[in-house]
Amino acid sequence: MATDWRTIPSLTALRAFAATAELRSFSQAARVLNVTHAAVAQQVRALEEQLGRPLVQREGRGVGLTADGEQLAEALNEGFAAFQRGLEALRAGEADRPVRVTLTASFAAQWLMPRLKDFWQKHPDIGLSLHPDNRVVDLHRDRMDLGIRYGNGDWAGVESAYLTSAHMVIAGAPSLIGDRNRLSVDDMAEMDWILSRTWPEQDAYLRQLGLDPETLNRTDINSEELAIAAARQGLGLVVESVALIESDVTDGRLRIVHESREKLPAYFIVTLPGPKRAAARAFLRWLAAQT
Fold first, then answer.
1. 216 near 193, Cβ under 8 Å?
2. Are residue 24 and residue 79 in the same domain, yes or no?
3. Whole-structure pTM over 0.70, yes or no?
4. 111 and 53 together in one domain
């Protein structure tokens, strides 16, 4: 049977009556509900008026229940007990649920994964669930605790915090560029490239340098991970965010031959407004300390 919400009294009044019935005292009910004695009494009186029958009666210094009051108190006791069991189960499930993070596969593989050992050493009891996706995911709809996004940090409906630079660089393997640390535009125009057909920022960067993406000797790979892997093998120069190749540069697999000086776009941590689960707060604090 469908619930007729219009006929159900307010939850505030039902809570006030249920606490009074359990404790047989307006004053004690007021203490557990963290309100005044008068507020509890007023809510109970309002409930009696709505139902059109008395529910409580004075008994010495305390409060007794009428027959109708006893009947309602028994029903509410069962109902609120069910509420409490459901809420406790939900809270327990939320406490055990891994921290869900949406991010791109390339950022997960190139930036986050090399650092996660440190997080798990510090928080071995916190699980992580990474959800690689190139789309901008709705955090609320997909029940994500947070996301890591590439852009200017101005997305609607979320809070954003700077994580790390995403300024673009051009890099190549030593087997391709030899001992050179910098290449001129003329040199780069004659070399092989690993590029993407679906990244307008890449094309804009190249054109700013005086290079025409359409006339370069290029191999198109629309996966950042595969493009970086190809660049490591010396198959061509690659345009990439510096954050995603920093380990390759540190270990000497790739060498930066040109870099942008623009501060934006960058990688940002995005969360929904409001309170965060304890596990999510711990992961957010750890992320912030990585910059």
1. yes
2. yes
3. no
4. no
